[in-house]
Design goal:
This protein is α/β, with parallel strands linked by helices and about 625 residues long. Among the domains are: about 140 residues, no CATH class; about 140 residues, Alpha/Beta hydrolase fold, catalytic domain (Rossmann fold), CATH 3.40.50.1820. Helix content is about 40%, strand content about 10%. The protein has 21 helices and twelve strands. A ten-stranded mixed sheet has the order 1-2-3-5-4-6-7-10-11-12, with helices on both faces. It has a two-stranded antiparallel sheet with strand order 8-9. Bound molecules: 2-acetamido-2-deoxy-beta-D-glucopyranose (6 copies). One 2-acetamido-2-deoxy-beta-D-glucopyranose binds next to helix 14. One of its GO terms (biological process) is antibiotic biosynthetic process.
C-alpha cells in the first residue's frame, strides 16, 4: 500500500503548461464537437494536407490504427466519459496541433503521449458488453517522427520493448507515476533506450468508471477524520464506529457503482496488463512493478507464463497472503518499527546534530544522546499525545490538532517509506517535543485532499474506497467469522506487534467484513500456484527495513518460485529500492532489463550508496 507523505516537498511536475491561448482553443473545439460539426476522421485526414492552424509538423494524432489513441499530452488529455456516444471524436478533438503546448522530456527529445484503451469490464461474460476505459500514458524516448521526414516511419520511433510501470496501492495511479518517474526509469534500467508506459488500473484516477463513492473529495476528508482513532486512543467503541462506517461506505459504493466491485480483483488487472502488452505488439511484458504492483506481477506471470519477459518486482509482497482474511494487513508488519528504531532514530544519532535535530540533547541530558534515551523521549512524546492532543495553529488551516493517531498514520509511518524526508520529520518531532506544534500541524494540513486552493477534479477516486474493494475481492472466499470479536483480537495483535503499522494495516482490511454483503463473487480471482515455469525468470527486490513489504515475504515468494525468480536483498531504508538507491542494485537491474542477464545466485546482496540524513556527504569524503 503506497502512502501519501504529507511532509514531502512537492516535486517539480513535468506537467504540461496551461496557456490561455490553448484554453481558448480547447473551448472552441469542444464547442464545435458539441454542435456536431467537428471533422470526421476522413475530414481530419484531409486537414493533414492542408497546412493551417489545425496542422502540426508531426502530423495528426491520434494516428490511424493506434489502439491506445495516443496524442501528445496537454493539460486536458483525460479519457472521455463512458457515456460519450462518440468517444473517439471527442478524444481526437483534444489534440492540440501546437508542439509548444506538448509535454516534452527534460532534454527536449522524449515526449509524453496520452491515450486510453477500452477493455471488457468482465472478461468472463461475453454477453456483458460494458467496458472499462483505461487511461494509459507513455514516455517515448525518441520523440516523434517529423512528418516531412520521409526516411523514417513513426513506428521506428517506438523502442523495441516498453518498460511498463505500476506504483502499487492498490489505488496508485500509473499515469501519475509515469509523470514523476519516466525519465528516471528509462535511464536507470536502460540508459535511456526504452520507452516507459504507465496505466491507471481499473477504478483508479483517470480510468473509468472511477471507484469513487463520495460525491466530493471534501466529504471524504471529514469521513476519514472520524475514522482516525487508533487502538491506543480508543479501543472497542472505535471498532464499532469504523465497522459501521465501512458498512455505510460499501453501501454507498454499491449504490453509486453497482456491481463494479466484482471486476477489480488483481486477476482482472492482470488481464488488463496482458491487453496492454497486446496493444503494444510485444511478445512479452517488460516491466517494473512496485509494492502491490508486485502482486499484479506475480499473478500475471503465473496466469500467462509464456508472456513473462524481463520483469522487476520491487518491494515484493507474497500475493498468496492476500487470499487470507486480513492477510494484506498482518503479513506487512515485520519491519516498520525496526525502520523507526534502527533507521529513523539510530541513523539520526549516527549522523549527529548537524544533520538531525533529534540528535540534540534536551535540557536535562548531558553528553551525546543514546538510542535508548531517544527512544524513551519519543515514547514519552507519543504517550503525552495519547493522553491529550496538542493544540496548534497554522495560517493556512486555522485551528489545528495534532493527535497521536494522525501523527502516526499521516506522518510517521509514511516517513518510514521515504528516508529522504527524515531530516524534516526529525525537525518537526524535535519542535513538537519542545511544545511547538506548528510544523506538525502544517504537515497534517497538507495531508488532506482539500488543502490546496485549486481543487482537484471532484470525482477523482481515492484509495480509501478502491483499496478495500480490491483487497476484499482478492480474499472474498476466506471463511468469515461472525461478529466483531475475531476482528477485535486481530486489531489487538496487530497494534501490539507494530504500533507504527498495525493500526493502519488493520483498518485497510476491516472493510472485508462487508464485501460479500454487497457483491456477488468476483468475476475472477487467481488461486493457482506461483511456481509456473516462466519464459523469463523474474527479478525480485526486497529490503530488510522495508516498512510495508518485509524481506521475509520476498524470500517466501522466491522460495515458491524456485528457479523462476532471483532476489536482490537491497540493504537500505524506505519502501522499495527507489528511495535509497544502490549502484549495485541498479547495475543488476539494468543488466537484466537491457541484456536479460540474470544473477546466478538465488540471492544477491546490495548495499545503499549513502547513509540517510547525510546524503551526498559520504561520496565527497
Ligand atoms: C452476463 O451478462 C449478462 C448481460 O449483462 C447478464 O444478464 C448475466 O447475468 C451475466 N452472467 C453472469 C454469470 O454474470
Ligand atoms: C491522476 O493522474 C494525473 C496524471 O495523469 C496526476 O496529475 C494526478 O495527480 C493523479 N491523481 C491521483 C489522485 O493520483
Ligand atoms: C449497513 O448499512 C445499511 C445501509 O445504511 C443498513 O441498512 C444496515 O442496517 C447496516 N448494517 C449494519 C450491520 O450496520
Ligand atoms: C524484520 O522482521 C523479521 C521478522 O520479525 C526479523 O526477523 C528481522 O530481524 C527484521 N529485520 C530487521 C532489520 O530488524
Ligand atoms: C514554532 O515553530 C515555527 C516553525 O518552525 C516557528 O516559525 C515559530 O517561530 C515557532 N514558535 C515559537 C513560539 O517558537
Ligand atoms: C508447484 O508446486 C506444487 C506444490 O505446491 C507442486 O505440486 C507442483 O508440481 C509445482 N509445479 C511446478 C511446475 O514446479
Amino acid at each position: 500500500m503506497e502512502k501519501k507523505n504529507p511532509t514531502a516537498i512537492s516535486q517539480p511536475r513535468t506537467w504540461p503548461r496551461r496557456t490561455i491561448i490553448w484554453m481558448a482553443a480547447a473551448v472552441g473545439i469542444v464547442g464545435l464537437v458539441r454542435l456536431g460539426i467537428f471533422p470526421t476522421p476522413a475530414q481530419r485526414w484531409a486537414l493533414r494536407d492542408n497546412p493551417g492552424v489545425q496542422d502540426s509538423p508531426y502530423g495528426l494524432f491520434p494516428q490511424e490504427n493506434d489502439p491506445f489513441h495516443f496524442i501528445p499530452c496537454t493539460d486536458v488529455s483525460r479519457p472521455p466519459p463512458l457515456d460519450d456516444p462518440t468517444p473517439q471524436q471527442s478524444w481526437a478533438a483534444l489534440f492540440d496541433p501546437n508542439p509548444n503546448h506538448w509535454s516534452w522530456g527534460s532534454t527536449g527529445r522524449g515526449i509524453y503521449l496520452c491515450g486510453y484503451l477500452d477493455l471488457p469490464l468482465d472478461y468472463h461474460n461475453s454477453s456483458d458488453h460494458r467496458i472499462v476505459r483505461i487511461a494509459v500514458n507513455k514516455f517515448q524516448v525518441a520523440g516523434l517522427a517529423h512528418k516531412n521526414d520521409p526516411r523514417i516511419s513513426s513506428k521506428s520511433y517506438r523502442s523495441e520493448r516498453t518498460i511498463i510501470i505500476n506504483p502499487g496501492g492498490p489505488g496508485g495511479s500509473g499515469t501519475s507515476f509515469l509523470w514523476e518517474t519516466a525519465e528516471e526509469m528509462t535511464n536507470r534500467f536502460s540508459d535511456g533506450e526504452l520507452d516507459v508506459l504507465g496505466w491507471d488500473p481499473r477504478g483508479v484516477n483517470f480510468s473509468l468508471p472511477a471507484a469513487a463513492c463520495f460525491p466530493q473529495n471534501g466529504f471524504r476528508d471529514r469521513w476519514s477524520l472520524l475514522a482516525l482513532r487508533y487502538r491506543e486512543e480508543a479501543p472497542r467503541a472505535q471498532l464499532e464506529a469504523v465497522d459501521a462506517m465501512n458498512n455505510a461506505t460499501f453501501f454507498a459504493c454499491q449504490q453509486r457503482l453497482g456491481d463494479f466491485g466484482r471486476f477489480i480483483s488483481t486477476a482482472s488487472v492482470a488481464r488488463d496488463l496482458d491487453e496492454i502488452r497486446k496493444a503494444l505488439h510485444e511478445e512479452e511484458v517488460t516491466g517494473y512493478l512496485v509494492s502491490y504492483g508486485t502482486g499484479i506481477g506475480q499473478t500475471y506471470v503465473n496466469m500467462f507464463p509464456t508472456r513473462a519477459g524481463r520483469l522487476i518486482l520491487d518491494g515484493t509482497e507474497y500475493v498468496r497472503d492476500h487470499r487470507l482474511l486480513g492477510g494484506f494487513g498482518w503479513t506487512a508488519l515485520d519491519n516498520a518499527t525496526d525502520a523507526w528504531r534502527d533507521g529513523f532514530l539510530g541513523e539520526c544519532l549516527n549522523a549527529g546534530p548537524k544533520w538531525c535535530a533529534l540528535a540534540n540533547p534536551v535540557s536535562s541530558q548531558n553528553g551525546p544522546v543514546t538510542l535508548a534515551q531517544l527512544e524513551a523521549r519519543m515514547a514519552q512524546l507519543l504517550d503525552s499525545l495519547k493522553a491529550r492532543p496538542q493544540s496548534a495553529y497554522t495560517e493556512s488551516g486555522g485551528p489545528s490538532l495534532v493527535t497521536y493517531s494522525a501523527l502516526v498514520e499521516r506522518i510517521l509511518y509514511p516517513a518510514m517509506y521515504r528516508p529522504e524526508n527524515w531530516p524534516g520529520t526529525a525537525q518537526m518531532l524535535y519542535e513538537l517535543e519542545a511544545g511547538n506544534a506548528t510544523l506538525a500541524a502544517k504537515s497534517l494540513d497538507l495531508s488532506w485532499s482539500e488543502h490546496s486552493e485549486k481543487p482537484i477534479h471532484p470525482y477523482t477516486p481515492a484509495s480509501s474506497e478502491l483499496d478495500p474493494l480490491v483487497i476484499c475481492s482478492d480474499s472474498y472466499d476466506a471463511p468469515l467469522p461472525d461478529g466483531l470479536d475475531w476482528w477485535d483480537q486481530l486489531w489487538k495483535d496487530m497494534s501490539a506487534r507494530s504500533w507504527m503499522a498495525g493500526n493502519s494495516r488493520f483498518f485497510a482490511v476491516l472493510p472485508c467484513r462487508y464485501y460479500n454483503t454487497y457483491w456477488a463473487p468476483p468475476s475472477e480471482v487467481y488461486r493457482g500456484d506461483l511456481n509456473h515455469t516462466l519464459k523469463t525468470p523474474t527479478l525480485l527486490i526486497a529490503s530488510p527495513y522495508d516498512p510495508a513489504t518485509p524481506l521475509r515475504n520476498g524470500r517466501r515468494l522466491r522460495a515458491e518460485m524456485g528457479q523462476n525468480a532471483r532476489l536482490i536483498v537491497h540493504h537500505a531504508y524506505g519502501h522499495s529500492s527507489r528511495r535509497d538507491m544502490s549502484e549495485c542494485t541498479n547495475q543488476v537491474a539494468k543488466a537484466y532489463i537491457l541484456h536479460g542477464i540474470i544473477p546466478k545466485e538465488q540471492e544477491t546482496h546490495c548495499y545503499a550508496n549513502e547513509k540517510p540524513y547525510v546524503r551526498g556527504l559520504i561520496g565527497d569524503e
